[in-house]
Every structure is written in C-alpha cells, then in structure tokens.
Target: Signal peptidase I
Amino acid sequence: MAKRKNELWEWTKALLIAVGLAVIIRYFLFAPIVVDGLSMMPTLHNGDRMIVNKLGKPNRFDIVVFHAPEKKDYIKRVIGLPGDKIEYKNDVLYINGKAYKEPYLDKYKKITQGPLTEDFTLKDLIGRDTVPKGEIFVMGDNRRQSKDSRIIGPVPLTKVIGDTKLIYWPMKDIRIVK
Model:
C-alpha cells in the first residue's frame, strides 16, 4: 500500500511541475496567436497561427502583437522606434531622412495601381516630428486596409505583447517570416 501511495504522489508531483512549467512558458515566454484579418497580407494570412516571443524589445521591421485600444490584440510591423522621424513620399519610406527598402511590400506593389502607401509625415498624423519616447510606430503590410499607427497613433511599448516570426499552422505554410 505504501508503494502505491508513493507512486501516486510521484505522478501528482510530475503533473504539477508540468502544469507549472506550461503556465510559466505561456504567460512569460511564448504564446500562440491567430492572425485575424487581412491587414498583414501578403506576409500573413487570416487564420495563420503563430508563436509570440514575449522576451526582448521590438526592433525596426519586426512583426509585433500588441493590445489595441479596442480591447483587441493587433499584429503589425514596427516601422518607427522612439525618436525616429517617419515620412512616406512617392511610396518610399524615409526614417530619419534615409530611404528604406521594404521587400515585404514588393508583391503588393506589383499588383496595385497607384501608391500602396499614401504620402504622410509623422507631424501630419500625430502632430509631432518624432515617435514619442516609450512608443513605436506600426503599420500593416496591407497598407490600404490596415488600422495601424496612422489611425490609432503610436503604440506604447507597455502594450506590446511580443514579436512573432514563426507560422506553425496551417502545415503547408509553416515558415519563419521576415
């Protein structure tokens, strides 16, 4: 009887440790997310399932997940970091006066007529020349159909859940995205 009790206790401990590790991993390190909508097309598709990395801070051009004002999580690309001056002119991104290529937009630029991204300066959108301290400027890759920082304003870093690079579902689309 004592041997059976000991075995039950060992199984209980193993189960508690497994559940504890799962909770720690899920809430502090990595979390799954489902892409909802078309704002990140063609890079991400509606229904793609991804892993969010909650460690580290976002870098320029990372794809991040954040808590949006509507009590919903959004997934967008980081365009501007704190202190950056952002401008779009003739469908070209300028950060701090330097032109940047956006290869993730090439597919859409080939099939759209006219500019994919309308001209703007940060001052036009938020009344400031630079991205505020502690915030990032994000945009969806589907520039014509994205509710992003051009509409909701810069995103506080405290609202960022993490960055994401790995699509794990559907199986045919498993890949690391850039």
About this structure: The chain is about 25% helix and 30% strand. The radius of gyration is 21 Å.
